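Aim 2 progress update. The chain analyzed this quarter is reproduced below.
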Amino acid sequence: MKATEKILLLPPDDVNRVIEMAWEDRTPFDAIEAQFGLVEQEVITLMRRELKAASWRRWRERVQGRSTKHAALSEVGDTRFRCSRQRGISQNKVSKR
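Predicted C-alpha coordinates:
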Protein backbone atom coordinates (compact mmCIF):
# COMPACT_ATOMS: atom_id res chain seq x y z
CA MET A 1 0.00 0.00 0.00
CA LYS A 2 1.31 3.45 -0.91
CA ALA A 3 2.04 6.08 1.73
CA THR A 4 -0.74 8.36 0.52
CA GLU A 5 -3.25 5.51 0.63
CA LYS A 6 -2.31 4.72 4.24
CA ILE A 7 -2.65 8.38 5.18
CA LEU A 8 -6.04 8.72 3.50
CA LEU A 9 -7.33 5.67 5.40
CA LEU A 10 -6.51 7.21 8.79
CA PRO A 11 -9.45 8.74 10.66
CA PRO A 12 -9.11 12.50 11.36
CA ASP A 13 -8.53 11.86 15.08
CA ASP A 14 -5.58 9.57 14.27
CA VAL A 15 -4.14 12.12 11.84
CA ASN A 16 -4.28 14.74 14.59
CA ARG A 17 -2.58 12.39 17.05
CA VAL A 18 0.18 11.52 14.56
CA ILE A 19 0.82 15.24 14.03
CA GLU A 20 0.91 15.80 17.78
CA MET A 21 3.35 12.91 18.28
CA ALA A 22 5.53 14.11 15.40
CA TRP A 23 5.86 17.56 17.01
CA GLU A 24 6.88 16.06 20.36
CA ASP A 25 10.65 16.01 20.81
CA ARG A 26 10.90 12.78 22.77
CA THR A 27 8.46 10.68 20.73
CA PRO A 28 10.49 8.63 18.24
CA PHE A 29 9.22 7.72 14.79
CA ASP A 30 9.30 4.11 16.00
CA ALA A 31 6.49 4.88 18.46
CA ILE A 32 4.37 6.35 15.66
CA GLU A 33 5.06 3.29 13.54
CA ALA A 34 4.12 0.95 16.40
CA GLN A 35 0.88 2.75 17.09
CA PHE A 36 -0.29 3.77 13.61
CA GLY A 37 1.79 1.69 11.18
CA LEU A 38 3.36 4.73 9.50
CA VAL A 39 7.11 4.66 8.86
CA GLU A 40 9.17 7.86 9.01
CA GLN A 41 8.75 8.72 5.33
CA GLU A 42 4.98 8.32 5.59
CA VAL A 43 4.92 10.62 8.63
CA ILE A 44 6.90 13.19 6.64
CA THR A 45 4.40 12.88 3.79
CA LEU A 46 1.49 13.30 6.20
CA MET A 47 3.07 16.35 7.82
CA ARG A 48 3.76 17.95 4.43
CA ARG A 49 0.16 17.33 3.38
CA GLU A 50 -1.49 18.56 6.60
CA LEU A 51 0.65 21.51 7.74
CA LYS A 52 0.92 25.01 6.34
CA ALA A 53 4.13 25.66 4.40
CA ALA A 54 5.80 27.68 7.17
CA SER A 55 4.83 25.13 9.83
CA TRP A 56 6.13 22.31 7.62
CA ARG A 57 9.51 24.03 7.20
CA ARG A 58 9.75 24.74 10.94
CA TRP A 59 8.89 21.12 11.81
CA ARG A 60 11.28 19.67 9.23
CA GLU A 61 14.14 21.85 10.42
CA ARG A 62 13.41 20.89 14.02
CA VAL A 63 13.23 17.14 13.36
CA GLN A 64 16.26 16.77 11.11
CA GLY A 65 18.76 17.46 13.86
CA ARG A 66 17.04 15.47 16.62
CA SER A 67 18.50 12.16 17.66
CA THR A 68 15.53 11.63 20.00
CA LYS A 69 13.22 11.18 17.00
CA HIS A 70 15.19 8.06 16.09
CA ALA A 71 15.18 5.42 18.82
CA ALA A 72 18.44 3.84 17.62
CA LEU A 73 20.28 7.18 17.93
CA SER A 74 18.53 8.38 21.07
CA GLU A 75 20.36 8.65 24.37
CA VAL A 76 17.07 8.49 26.23
CA GLY A 77 17.32 5.44 28.46
CA ASP A 78 13.65 4.72 28.95
CA THR A 79 11.29 3.39 26.33
CA ARG A 80 8.18 5.27 27.44
CA PHE A 81 6.16 6.90 24.71
CA ARG A 82 4.34 9.28 27.04
CA CYS A 83 5.15 12.02 29.49
CA SER A 84 6.20 11.00 33.00
CA ARG A 85 3.34 13.19 34.32
CA GLN A 86 0.72 11.53 32.09
CA ARG A 87 -0.96 9.63 34.91
CA GLY A 88 -1.47 12.84 36.86
CA ILE A 89 -2.70 14.68 33.78
CA SER A 90 -5.25 12.04 32.78
CA GLN A 91 -6.30 11.36 36.39
CA ASN A 92 -5.60 7.67 35.80
CA LYS A 93 -5.36 5.95 39.19
CA VAL A 94 -4.46 2.53 37.80
CA SER A 95 -0.77 1.84 37.40
CA LYS A 96 0.08 0.54 33.93
CA ARG A 97 2.96 -1.90 33.72
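The chain has one domain: 3-90. The radius of gyration is 14 Å. These observations will guide the mutagenesis experiments scheduled for the next reporting period.
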